[in-house]
C-alpha cells in the first residue's frame, strides 16, 4: 500500500493536520496525490547528492505532470487542468534555478521539504501505533496471565510488533540519509558561503531555514526515543520467548541515539564571526580591543531557553592569549531578531600571555604575526529528556595583531585563507600556502570593491589587473598568483599594498563617483592612449595610478599643456568632482582654460558630475586648484594625451 494511501486512513484529526501541511505550492497536495506511486518510488535523498540524477528526476516529474494534464483534458476537468499547468510552471522555474551554475542545491531542498512535511505526521502515526500496541499488549497480558492466549494470538501480536519495528528501522534509514544531507551538504555549503561573505561575497547566510530543518529532524528523533521507551515499558509488563522487542530494541536505541547525537553536535555554530567595531573586516582582532561574536544552536527547543551555558576559550599553535570580558553566556531567544537560540558575546577582548618570556605556542615554523592563525572555541552541553551531549563550535581562523599598522597585512591573510581553504581547522595553512588561480583571485578582488562601495569590478577592469600580474595572455584562467606575490609582511611593493591603497582611496574620497561608474579606474597607460586616440579634443578618463600607492590620474585629449600632480592634502580640502569642475591650465598669455570637457566616451562633463557640484563656483576652490598649474608651450602638432598623476597619496 502506498504511503499516501496509508495516510488517507488516519483518524480525522490527523487528516486535518495533513491538509494544513499541504497549503503551499512548494509541494502541492494535488501533485503528491496524483503522482504518489511515482514519487514514493524515487530515490530523492540520493538525488540530493547526485546532480545528474536530480536533473533527470525533475525532468521526469515535469513529464508526469504533462501526462496528468492530458488526462484532465480528456476528462474535461478544467480546474484540475489549470492547477496542474501552474504547478508545472513552478517546477520548471525550480529546474532552471537548479541547472544554474553556483546555485544552492534545489534537489536537497526538495528532499528535505518532503521529509520535513511528513515529520509531524510521523510523530502522530507513532503515537497512534503506540496506542494500538498498548491495547494489544494489555489484552495479551490479561489472556497470557489467565492462560487463555492461543498460539495464533501470540503470533498475531508478535507479527504486529515486528511490522512496527521494521517500519521504525525504515524511518531511521531515511532519517540517517536526511541528517547526512543536512550535516555534510547543506551545513557545509552554508559554512562555505559564510567564509565567502566574510571576505565580501554577496551570499545569503541566513540560518532560519537550516534551523527549521535541524529542529524538525531532532523532534522526530526524540519522538523515536520516546516510542522506544514506551516499548520497553510494554515489555516490562509481560514478555515471552522470542519477543521481538527484546531482540531488536537495544540496536534501535543505539542507532537512534547515534543519529541524534551526530545531528546535535553539528547544530552548534558560529552565526556571526568575530569582528572589531572599527576593523578592516571580520576575523582580524587586536589585543586589548573589544570584539563581538555570536553563536547559535540550530536545534530550537523553547524549554532550553536560558538553560545552556556557553563558555569561550582560545585554541592556538603560536602565541597564547587569554580571553577577557564576559566569557560565559546562556543561549537564549531574546538576542536574535528571528527568535533563534543564540549567545551574543559583545564585550570580549584578548590579552597575550607572556609565559616563558615569549608567549609562543608549540609551533616552531617561522611565520609572521599576520600569518599566524588562531581559533576561538565555544563549549556547551545539551541536556534534554535524559540525553546529555557536549557541543563545541569554533570560529573561522582569526589573525591577532597588536597595533593598527598590521591591519592591512592581517586582512590580506584573511582574504587568502578564506578564498582558498575550506578546512577551517588548518592553523598551519601559511606554512605551505597554495597559489590562487586567476578566476578565484579576480572574483575575490571584485568582492572587495563590491562590499566597500556596492560596485564590483567589470571584466575590462579585471583584465587590466590580470595583464599587470601576468603580462599579455590569450587566456588568464590557468594563471596563478602566489601568496608571496600577493602579500608578504615588510615588503612595500606587493600587489595587495597597491590594490588596497586604491580601495581605501575610493572608499574615502571617491565612493559616489565609483558607484556611478564615472571612474574607469583599472586601465593601463597603453589602453588609455588607445581609447583616447580617436576621441574629440577635451575627452578625458579617470584611472588609477600603476606606480603610486593610492593614486588616481586623469588624462585628456588636447594640443598643448603640462600639469603638476595633486596630493592627499588637496583632496582633503577639495572633493575630486570639484577638482574636475574647476581644473585649469594656462595657455600663453595667462589665459585659463579647462581642458576637461567630455568624460569618456562622450558624456559632457557637467552632465556626468553636475549633481555632485557644490552650489558656488570659483572663489576659494578655483584659486586652490588653479595655483598648481602653469603653462608650458609645446609645438608638436595634432591631438595629444595629457595626464595628471598621483592625485592622492596615502
**Large-scale geometry:** globular
Number of strands: 19
The poorly predicted ranges are 101-114, 618-639, 642-650
The helix fraction, in percent, is 40-55%
Beta content: 15-25%
Termini separation = 75 Å
Q: What is the alpha-carbon Rg in Å? A: 34 Å
Q: Which structural class should the secondary elements be placed in?
A: alpha+beta
Strand order of the main beta sheet, please? 18-17-13-14-19
What do the pLDDT scores average to? 80
Word description of this protein:
The protein has 650 residues and is α+β, with helices and mostly antiparallel strands. A five-stranded mixed sheet has the order 18-17-13-14-19. It starts with a helix and ends in a 6-residue tail after the last strand. The C terminus is likely disordered. One of its GO terms (cellular component) is cytoplasm. This is Signal transducer and activator of transcription. It holds the Pfam family STAT_bind.
Question: Features of this protein?
Answer:
single chain, 650 residues, alpha+beta, 21 helices, 49% helix, globular, disordered C terminus, transcription regulation, STAT_linker
Summarize the structure.
The protein has helices at residues 3-7, 12-21, 29-34, 36-40, 44-47, 51-74, 78-99, 106-145, 151-198, 208-237, 244-266, 407-420, 438-453, 459-470, 483-486, 495-515, 525-532, 568-573, 576-582, 605-609, 619-626, and strands at 268-275, 284-286, 291-297, 309-316, 321-325, 328-330, 341-352, 374-384, 387-394, 399-401, 436-437, 480-481, 539-544, 552-558, 585-587, 591-593, 598-599, 603-604, 640-644. It has 650 residues and is α+β, with helices and mostly antiparallel strands.
Amino acid at each position: 500500500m502506498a504511503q499516501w494511501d496509508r495516510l488517507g486512513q488516519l483518524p480525522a484529526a490527523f487528516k486535518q493536520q495533513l491538509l494544513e501541511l499541504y497549503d503551499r505550492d512548494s509541494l502541492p497536495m494535488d501533485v503528491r496525490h496524483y503522482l504518489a506511486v511515482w514519487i514514493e518510488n524515487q530515490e530523492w535523498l540520493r538525488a540530493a547528492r547526485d546532480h545528474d540524477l536530480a536533473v533527470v528526476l525533475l525532468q521526469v516529474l515535469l513529464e508526469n505532470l504533462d501526462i496528468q494534464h492530458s488526462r484532465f483534458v480528456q476528462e474535461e476537468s478544467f480546474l484540475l487542468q489549470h492547477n496542474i499547468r501552474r504547478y508545472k510552471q513552478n517546477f520548471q522555474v525550480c529546474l532552471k534555478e537548479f541547472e544554474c551554475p553556483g546555485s544552492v542545491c534545489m534537489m536537497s531542498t526538495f528532499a528535505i521539504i518532503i521529509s520535513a512535511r511528513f515529520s509531524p505526521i510521523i510523530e502522530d502515526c507513532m503515537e497512534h501505533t503506540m496506542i494500538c500496541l498498548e491495547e494489544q499488549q494489555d489484552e495479551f497480558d490479561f489472556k497470557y496471565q489467565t492462560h487463555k492466549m492461543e498460539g495464533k494470538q501470540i503470533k498475531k501480536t508478535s507479527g504486529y510488533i515486528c511490522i512496527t519495528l521494521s517500519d521504525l528501522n525504515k524511518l531511521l534509514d531515511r532519517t540517517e540519509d536526511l541528517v547526512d544531507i543536512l550535516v555534510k551538504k547543506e551545513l557545509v555549503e552554508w559554512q562555505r558561503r559564510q567564509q565567502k561573505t566574510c571576505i565580501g561575497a554577496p551570499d545569503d547566510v541566513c540560518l532560519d531555514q537550516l534551523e527549521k530543518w535541524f529542529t524538525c529532524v531532532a523532534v522526530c528523533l526524540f519522538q523515536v526515543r520516546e516510542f522506544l521507551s514506551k516499548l520497553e515499558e510494554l515489555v516490562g509488563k509481560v514478555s515471552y520467548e522470542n519477543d521481538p522487542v527484546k531482540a531488536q530494541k537495544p540496536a534501535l536505541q543505539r542507532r537512534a541515539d547515534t543519529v541524534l547525537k551526530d545531528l546535535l553536535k553539528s547544530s552548534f555554530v558560529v552565526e556571526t564571526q568575530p569582528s572589531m567595531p572599527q576593523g578592516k573586516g571580520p576575523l582580524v582582532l587586536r589585543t586589548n580591543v573589544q570584539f563581538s561574536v555570536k553563536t547559535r544552536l540550530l536545534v530550537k527547543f523553547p524549554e532550553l531557553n536560558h538553560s545552556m551555558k556557553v563558555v569561550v576559550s582560545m585554541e592556538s599553535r603560536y602565541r597564547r592569549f587569554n580571553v577577557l570580558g564576559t566569557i560565559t553566556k546562556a543561549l537564549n531567544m531574546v538576542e536574535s531578531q528571528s527568535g533563534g537560540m543564540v549567545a551574543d558575546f559583545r564585550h570580549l577582548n584578548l590579552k597575550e600571555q607572556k609565559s616563558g618570556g615569549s608567549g609562543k605556542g608549540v609551533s616552531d615554523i617561522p611565520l609572521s604575526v599576520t600569518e599566524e592563525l588562531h581559533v576561538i572555541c565555544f563549549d556547551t552541553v545539551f541536556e534534554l529528556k535524559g540525553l546529555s551531549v557536549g557541543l563545541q563550535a569554533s570560529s573561522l581562523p582569526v589573525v591577532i595583531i597588536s597595533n593598527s599598522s598590521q591591519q592591512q597585512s592581517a586582512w590580506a591573510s584573511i582574504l587568502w585563507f578564506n578564498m582558498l581553504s575550506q578546512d577551517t581547522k588548518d592553523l598551519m595553512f601559511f606554512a605551505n600556502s597554495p597559489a590562487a588561480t586567476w578566476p578565484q583571485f579576480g572574483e575575490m578582488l571584485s568582492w572587495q570593491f563590491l562590499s566597500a562601495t556596492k560596485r564590483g569590478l567589470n571584466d575590462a577592469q579585471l583584465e587590466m589587473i590580470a595583464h599587470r600580474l601576468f603580462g599579455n595572455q590569450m587566456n588568464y584562467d590557468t594563471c596563478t598568483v602566489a601568496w608571496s606575490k600577493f602579500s608578504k609582511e615588510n615588503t612595500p611593493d606587493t600587489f595587495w599594498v597597491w590594490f588596497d591603497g586604491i580601495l581605501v582611496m575610493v572608499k574615502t574620497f571617491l565612493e559616489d563617483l565609483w558607484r556611478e561608474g564615472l571612474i574607469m579606474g583599472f586601465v593601463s597607460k597603453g589602453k588609455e592612449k588607445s581609447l583616447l586616440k580617436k576621441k574629440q579634443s577635451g575627452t578625458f578618463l579617470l584611472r588609477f595610478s600603476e606606480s603610486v600607492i593610492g593614486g588616481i590620474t586623469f588624462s585628456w585629449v588636447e594640443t598643448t599643456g603640462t600639469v603638476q600632480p595633486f596630493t592627499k592634502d588637496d583632496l582633503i580640502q577639495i572633493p575630486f568632482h570639484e577638482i574636475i569642475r574647476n581644473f585649469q591650465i594656462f595657455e600663453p598669455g595667462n589665459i585659463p582654460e579647462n581642458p576637461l570637457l567630455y568624460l569618456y566616451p562622450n558624456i559632457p562633463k557637467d552632465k556626468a558630475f553636475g549633481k555632485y557640484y557644490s552650489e558656488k563656483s570659483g572663489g576659494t576652490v578655483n584659486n586652490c586648484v588653479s595655483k598648481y598649474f602653469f603653462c608650458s608651450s609645446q609645438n608638436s602638432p595634432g591631438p595629444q594625451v595629457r595626464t595628471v598623476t598621483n592625485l592622492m597619496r596615502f
